[in-house]
Specification:
By secondary structure, this protein is mainly beta. The chain contains one helix and 22 strands. The structure holds beta-D-galactopyranose (GAL).
């Protein structure tokens, strides 16, 4: 694969899904399975900072990536030029700390809580893979600034001791926020409404996509309808995406099918969903964000962004594009 930087060239800046994407300092953007929040004219991208394995070490495809650094943050005014804002949530060097490095910290997502004005981060937490059995919990962090530093509020199993795995946060237009998480050994997804301060869950919660075995949830709302894109459960290996629709985040959700089309639709173009980004100021512009995992070298996992086609019958498609820019939404 090419390592050509994604720079504004004579033809204008463009997204090249699956290629190495550099920040403005020329370093690869290391923010995986993350999400993006728009605030005061800038987009803020939080994601997993992933590290390469020591030379010669092997990663079993079933294993998670152990977190040695934390959650990174980048910002951009135009979605093309990204400034490294540093580590928003750092792991701890203290073995007694819940964030002791070597834990598995996955799919971090950030929202601004309207009631408190603070930023909350939720993620899938697995206690230090070096020292503990897998625990599958949710972790909640808070910060006064979008770029952090975030501090840990708590680690817990949601909704009366439910298993928490792949997850995302979603804020509806009315300011209510929801945490979606794969549960029940990944067989069934749950959605739980957050408290007004966004630091707790369980105001209301529902089991959704029951028995469908989906993970990597990513959602958006268009014309009053919610769309929830998920992957199948095959670890770091790619599989087919599917989407479901609902009028309300708590459901009922109805599965429609694979939004990807064409030759590589079955593998989601060798990637896995992570987030859907609404482009500011363009009510019909949504970007599907996915990760193309490289489990031999997680630091070299690639970002794969594609525009979502909203069809007149309220279905969606995500066709492959090797190179594209925001004019596709015109
Ligand atoms: C995937 C999941 C990733 C990570 C990985 C570990 O299924 O979406 O976030 O947990 O498994 O194998």
């Amino acid at each position: 694969m090419s390592t050509k930087p994604l720079t504004p060239a004579a033809t204008g800046p463009a997204f090249s899904p699956g290629e190495v994407w550099h920040d403005v300092n020329g370093r690869p953007i290391n923010a995986h399975a993350g999400g993006i929040l728009f605030e005061s004219g800038r987009y803020y991208w939080h994601g997993q900072h992933m590290t390469a394995l020591p030379t010669g070490a092997k990663y079993p495809p079933s294993a998670g990536n152990l977190t040695e650094v934390g959650v990174s943050c980048y910002s951009s005014a135009d979605l093309f030029n990204w400034r490294d804002e540093g580590i928003a949530l750092a792991v701890s060097e203290d073995p007694a700390h819940d964030l002791y490095k070597g834990l598995r910290l996955e799919r971090p997502k950030v929202l601004r809580c309207p009631a408190t004005g603070r930023y909350v981060m939720w993620f899938h937490y697995v206690r230090s893979g070096k020292t503990h059995a897998e625990s599958y919990e949710a972790a909640v962090c808070v910060a006064d600034r979008i770029t952090g530093p975030f501090r840990l509020v708590k680690v817990f199993r949601a909704d009366g001791n439910q298993m928490v795995r792949d997850c995302t946060l979603y804020q509806d237009d009315d300011g209510k926020a929801y945490f979606f998480y794969a549960s029940e050994e990944n067989m069934t997804m749950h959605v739980t409404q957050l408290s007004d301060d966004y630091l707790d869950a369980g105001v209301r919660w529902e089991r959704i996509l029951i028995g469908e075995q989906r993970e990597a949830p990513a959602l958006f709302k268009h014309q009053g309808r919610h769309y929830l894109i998920t992957s199948g459960c095959t670890g770091w290996s790619h599989n087919s995406a599917a989407y479901a629709v609902a009028d309300h985040p708590l459901g009922p959700w109805k599965t429609i099918g694979n939004p990807c089309v064409g030759p590589d639709a079955r593998t989601t173009y060798e990637s896995q969903s992570t987030f859907v980004l609404p482009v500011q100021g363009r009510p019909n512009a949504f970007i599907f964000m996915a990760d193309r995992w490289n489990y031999a070298n997680m630091a070299d996992s690639r970002h794969l962004w594609l525009p979502i086609t909203l069809k007149s019958d309220a279905t969606i498609e995500i066709p492959w594009r090797a190179r594209w820019d925001l004019s596709v939404f015109n």
